[in-house]
Amino acid sequence: MRSQPKRSGPSYQVTERTPRRRELYREPCQDEEGNRYTVIVYRPFPKLAVTKYELEDGTPVRFIDDCLFEIESTRLTLTRCGL
To answer: Is 48 exposed, middle or buried (0-12, 13-18, 19+ CB in 10 A)?
Structure first.
């Protein structure tokens, strides 16, 4: 059996594309004790109508309704300040 020479790499090039998230707006909020938070509303994939929410430090936030958000890790409820 004859040995095959090793190739330097794949014959195709793999490029990794990370989608650029698009920030839509920031929502000032507060908890029951009056502590202020900023919820960032963004689209992780520009061409899809998927909306995500997180705090400025990257903590995930869940949208409850037009007036409320919930910090997922602590279950703390946040109210929009403008309403």
So the answer is: exposed
Distance CA 72, CA 74 (A): 6
Sequence-separated (6 or more) residues with CB below 8 Å from residue 58:
none
pLDDT of residue 19: 53
Distance from first CA to last CA of the chain, Å, rounded? Answer: 78
pLDDT at 55: 96
Q: Using the 8-state DSSP alphabet, how is residue 8 labeled?
A: S
Longest dimension (CA), the chain: 78
Tokens of 12: 């195709």
For 59-73, what is each residue's pLDDT tens digit? Answer: 999 999 989 999 999
Record the tokens describing residue 32, joined without a space.
């029951």
pLDDT band at 18 (very low <50, low <70, confident <90, very high): low
